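Aggregate trends can hide what the representation actually does to any particular protein. In the encoding step, the backbone of a single protein was reduced to a row of integers, each denoting a local shape. The record that follows shows the chain in one-letter code together with its fold in token form.

***
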Amino acid sequence: MRWDRRFYGGVPNVNTSQPSTFEHLIHTTQQLVLEKGCRSTTLQDIIDRSGISKGGIYHYVSGKDELLGLVLKESFEETNRQFEEAVNAALQKHASVRPFEILSKRMAGKDVHGRVVNEIYLYLVSQMDKPKVQKILSDLYQFRHRLSVQWIQFGQQSGAIPQFVNVHQAAMILEVLRDGLRIQHAITEPPQHVQPDFVLQMLMNLLTDHSGMNLENKASKAGD
């Protein structure tokens, strides 16, 4: 399967031919977000902690919000890389984890990665009155949607997901589920958080429903 990683818009494509500075910038931003939260983390904090000059940071982004969007994009890329690795292992018949288990664990947000993504995403949503942030989130959504479509198409090609499932509608519902989990984690205590096993079960129930109706028909009936 050919994986399309193109991304255009509010969050820049980054040339990672020299990944050390870029990865250091992303890692430093993640650490500061964990320690201080998005609102309290300033671009100067990132400059001081990383040792990267302001000009060096502006080589990648034009400001803090765009940098946070770039951290999210890199996180989605990492999820896709892990999914691809699980797909390749499955094709070679020696998989230790199923591809959709990768998605359920990432969506459940139980690790450090999940906390960083949730913190940044909810912060950016709270800044939606800024046109630039609206553009960042819109472009990130389109990027996530394309990845979700690829994942569902793989499931159909492998026979794990029925052909009648409407790929784009399923991808949209996948995004709704993912964002809903972020909100749930933000407003509840850890004992109430949805667990990865339940996310996997919910995800596969959604994508393997053999009731004979596609998701587009279900969505139209739900609106009646």
